[in-house]
Amino acid sequence: MVAPKKGKAFDRSIVEGPIRGAVWKLAWPTMLQNIIGGMQGIVDHAMVGNYVGYTGNAAIGVSWQIFLVVIVFISSLFTGMGVLVARFTGANEPDKVNRTVYQAFLTSIMLVVFVLAPIGYLLSPILLDLVNATEAVQTEALPYLRIMFVFSFGMLVFFMLGGALRSAGDAKTPLRLGIALTILNIVLNVVFIRGLGPIPAFGTAGAAMGTVIAGATIAIYSLFKLFGGTWVVVFHRRMEWAPDWTIIRQLFKFGLPTGIQGVAMNVGGVLLLAFVGSLATSAQAQAAYVVSYTQLFSFVTWTSVGIMGATAAVAGQNLGAGQPDRTAQSVNVAAGIGLSLAASIGLMFFIFPNQLLGIFGMDEPVVVGLAVELLRYLAVSGLFITVALAYTGGLQGTGDTKSPMYISIVSQIVIPLGMCFGIQTFSTLEPRHIWMAIVLGHLTRATLSVIVFRREKWRNIEVDIGAAETA
């Protein structure tokens, strides 16, 4: 009988080498991948805006607002997968790593086929009504949203494999896959949005077609590689193919709090935007908010999320290797790296605000004034959010996914929205009040994350899925 392929050996420098090098080895590819992926969304908007018009941009915007809430919730099981994979990698148990990733893959198939695709297709018109999309925008958004719901499996596989490989110590393969996905997506969007040769122009729907085809292509390639035995994660024919409910329960146990956290934060963002829309200078404030917070501040969040993912993997692996002190040290080091990057970006916000805003064609005096003011608040806020995300990665990587959920609800919903509501009720809400609410929310999140992590209850979290069944 032919023995199953074992795959590449785990990178033991994560649990044995210098901490700073271990964190950076996983962080820089993840940060670069996040930046490249974010740029691809900007390209999508630019192309649709040029070939379809502003209704196409609005259609993609509202569709992603809906789609992300659903995807963030479903993708939460990949956080649970990451907890298990990191622990088993640190303990040098490749069989448990492979079993965990396969069960996450199988669960993803079930969720897409039986939940996301049919329910998303049927509820798309209702969801578009809920976000008050105009009739013109709904006409563009409905086919886009339905395509994304029905054919999103490739994208989910990409997210799953990125998390699995990174948690197992390989961040460069997800980076290569992400670059390939982005390039393929852009090429396909050029073809399907504007049309090429015999292929007609599909407009806004073409952007969705390009996205799902690119995702499916990368997913098919990845499956071949998984069976090829050249990655640190391997599938083979002698695996147990049936659902393993012990593993699946663990995936949801550690993952669901992250899903609830993601949904809550998205809802909080929408409600905060509603306060911006209630200002006397609502149009100008919304323009400033969109460019300064959702676009330029993304350079802080992209890098900070990369730090978070790297921290989760390093912390989880070292805890799995029985080195909790090294786990604590890795989170402190990651926070320091994040602070230096956030400070550099924040300095740019202070020194070159007008030049940065000029990239987006902002020249209206009131809008520029509000945007510059917001950037100065965000330069400070970036220091807090990068610390918060580093310690969030430490908590989630060690298996404490509930604490970040509670912290996010308090810091991203209760504090900023409560402050805005109170001021609006008893006084006059002004833009600077909302900007300050954002900073206080991030400060609260950083403070609570540090306090909870340093209580070190994560040291006692146990993870096990039992031995594999043998034929």
Question: Can you give a write-up of this model?
Answer:
This protein is mostly helical and 471 residues long. It has two domains: 23-243, no CATH class; 257-457, no CATH class. The chain is 80% helix and 0% strand. The protein has helices spanning 13-16, 19-51, 54-74, 76-90, 94-130, 135-150, 153-167, 172-194, 204-228, 245-277, 282-296, 298-320, 324-351, 353-358, 365-397, 402-426, 431-455. Helix 2 crosses helix 13. It starts with 12 loop residues before the first helix and ends in a 16-residue tail after the last helix.
Largest sheet: none
Structural class by helix and strand composition: mainly alpha
> How many structural domains are formed by the residues?
2
Mean pLDDT: 88
Topology:
Elements (H helix, E strand, L loop, with lengths): L12 H4 L2 H33 L2 H21 L1 H15 L3 H37 L4 H16 L2 H15 L4 H23 L9 H25 L16 H33 L4 H15 L1 H23 L3 H28 L1 H6 L6 H33 L4 H25 L4 H25 L16
Helix pairs in contact: 2-3, 2-8, 2-12, 2-13, 3-5, 3-6, 3-10, 4-5, 4-7, 4-10, 4-12, 5-6, 5-7, 6-9, 7-8, 7-9, 8-9, 10-16, 11-15, 12-13, 12-15, 13-15, 15-17, 16-17
Features:
2 domains; 471 residues; single chain; mainly alpha
A few lines on this structure:
The protein is mainly α and 471 residues long. Helix content is 80%, strand content 0%.
